[in-house]
Amino acid sequence: MTAIPRLVLSAPHGRSGKTTLCLGLAAAFAGRGLRVQPFKKGPDYIDPGWLGEAAGRPCRNLDLFLVEAGALLAGFGRACQSADLALIEGAHGLYDGLDGEGTNSTAQLARLLQAPVVLVIDASRMTQSVAALVRGFQDFQPGVNVAGVILNQVANPRHRAKLADALSRHVKIPLLGALPRGPSLTIPDRHLGLVPRDEEAGLLPVVEELRRAVEASVDLDGLLDLARRAPPLALSPVPPIAALAPSVRLGVARDRAFTFYYPENLEALRRAGAELVPLDTLEDRSLPEVDGLYLGGGFPEMFLEALEANEGLRRDIRRAVSDGLPVYAECGGLMYLARRITWNGRSASMVGALPCDIEMTAGIQGHGYVRGRVAGANPYFPIGTALRGHEFHYSRVTGLEAGEFAFSLERGRGIAGGKDGLVVENVLAAYTHLHALGAPGWAEGLVAQAHAYREGRVQASPLTPTLSPRGRG
User: Do 230 and 114 contact (CB within 8 A), yes or no?
Assistant: First the structure.
């Protein structure tokens, strides 16, 4: 049994203020000298970036659709080994899931983690009804410990007193904070949520403002006491995962245009034997010597002119792909490898390694969980491999002239009509995002292809024309 102080922050519905509160709490507890391990429920990159900034250590995702319960618990325990507090931000409303049973809801996650839930309630235009709302959430499903309340958008001290009286009189649940109504202290939104932390350094002072607001309005000692009353978790000993000695150099686009990476994905690549080489698609004028590329998601449409202007890097990547360089690209990475991106009347040339164009649209093109199988030949996955992932994109592929699809989706749109994973040369580019804990073999497949490419390239010379520069024989 392992004792991990922990809290789940949830709400009756989205837009209740739980992200704002979690950012302030993470910064406030870290400011007290506590080692705060933040988590975000669901497939999200942007909130975790800000939570990691506030806590001072990388945020992890917890999602029971992408990762089975045993692997999720193991990852949770490993991340918390040196932490004083696990702070978990829920998604949507507490009981909102994939179906009428609440599958993959925040409540299901809280039950698995045996974590007390603090309900964040937007109290606008509400007094006595707050007690009925909380009572309903406490009684709705067994095994969910709704143990505290934090109110948001409280009009004035009189309003707060009425709300506190209703909770004390009818529910007997601790009121652990009340944030006053006022100018919103939060990160600006974009089409998929908040602006990414790595993109806007000028917004970092907002985290400090949130810390001060939370310290002034929330009972931090009461929250910490509640977290420490969480029962011990039955976790198997979690030994450190040994990494292989690096055998390949894998370029990873890490800049303002490409920010969407799960920490577990990067760790899995290192464990498989990759040295990760940061690549800045906006500033690096040439491709460093690498044996493969991992191009994650992000917002390349926000940097069209800068990406187009870096012609040397685009040319190097295009030539390397034609020579067989292994590349795995997700969403934004797919967009960057296409010929052009068009958005709001602007159009810019991209790498041109994929025979297609990208059009940004006003409406969302793919949003939610993805489930499918590997159905076509590709460099990284055996045919028949089951896949679970997610997609969030406003762009679509147009003018596709060649290539095959590796993924057949039962759930999700992909590139077109449930087909995803465009394969061209040694490139696999998809709108589907994968999480390494739920995609065993992905990292090993990419590193294996990079190793084959390296061996072929190192050995190839004018005197050995029978060796393929692609390392594939």
Answer: yes
